[in-house]
Amino acid sequence: MKTLGSTSNLEQARVLIVDDVPENLTVLGEVLQGAGCIVQVANSGPAALRLATQAPTPELILLDVMMPGMDGYEVLRRLRAEPRSHDIPVMFLTALDDPRDEEHGLSLGAVDYLAKPIQPAVVLARVRSQIDARRLREWLRDQNAALEAEVARRMAENDAIQQVTIRALAHLAETRDPETGNHILRTQAYMQLLARALRHHPRFAATLNEHTIELLTRSAPLHDIGKVGIPDHILLKPGRLTADEWEPMKTHAALGAAAIEQAERDIDRPVEFLSLAKQIARSHHERWDGSGYPDGLAGESIPIAARLMAVADVFDALISPRVYKRAMSFDEARRMINDGRGSHFDPAVVDVFEDEFERFVDIANRHRDKPPAVAPRVH
């Protein structure tokens, strides 16, 4: 990589001179070598094209316009068409004095013109200008590449930190509800599967783009974060809850949303995945017919993210063993989900669940739990 300071002189600048007249090659070569340049010469267009694409490539090409066989204009066209020589600056050498010739060359991509007979001082000034400009462009390109790499590294690091933080919070909830095991992995995968299958559905296409699906998948593990606020004697009870115990248990949805909302206020700026996580945490126990909690939302008023989680969460609860119930078979759980179509669940989500049922089974098997030791709540 050229340093920015190396643009102050022509030492070691690699220049290719192309001219069919040997005397011109000699004169120009002596001028440039005297200034410290590494000079290559070619006496024809084909020879110039070979040298221009061989490593190390020249930093500048001085190209005669009037040459037999392949003139300078054609050489320039071919240089620009070849990726290895596309960016090499080309200065035309010409005895032509018609401005239209100069305009034509510039339109093809030449950076400058040198008139014959040459004037050494002018040649060196023009060459130095182009070498300086090229080295500066290379320096800026390298700096930009380094900056882009650093930005990408930091973004990847921030992304990893965010995902680890989400998992840590989700596992924190699990420590209070230890039988959930791989529940967050399964429900996260179910959510992604449902969202991808629904992204072209007329009712969901405007919302479920790739970016939103990524955010949904990322935020899904926080759906039960509110369980950290439920008293142990309810959360860890080894049996079914009474009606009186269910009331505080149901507050975990609002507690989780409130915790996430507080996090949003603390950072004092909106974060997309937190907004979706809040919707999921608060509303994944709402029912399509309005009989759910905590807000009694119905139909389309239930956030899409929560509607997806409702199916994912209930399916996983049905197929998971508890001390007070056996695990349902996949087919039994399938019937239960279908029975809830239009009452508990959004019909369109259930339809996709049915279409993708075999993949649900694959996910459940891939993230199967070990035998439980303590019972969580059925929700």
From TrEMBL:
Pfam families documented for this protein: HD_5 (PF13487), Response_reg (PF00072)
Modified residues (4-aspartylphosphate): 64
Top-level taxon of origin: Bacteria
Positions of the Response regulatory domain: 14-131
Key words, A-Z: Phosphoprotein
Domain HD-GYP: 158-369
Gene3D superfamilies listed in its UniProt record: 3.40.50.2300, Hypothetical protein af1432 (1.10.3210.10)
Protein name per Swiss-Prot or TrEMBL: Two-component system response regulator
The organism of origin for this protein: Ideonella azotifigens
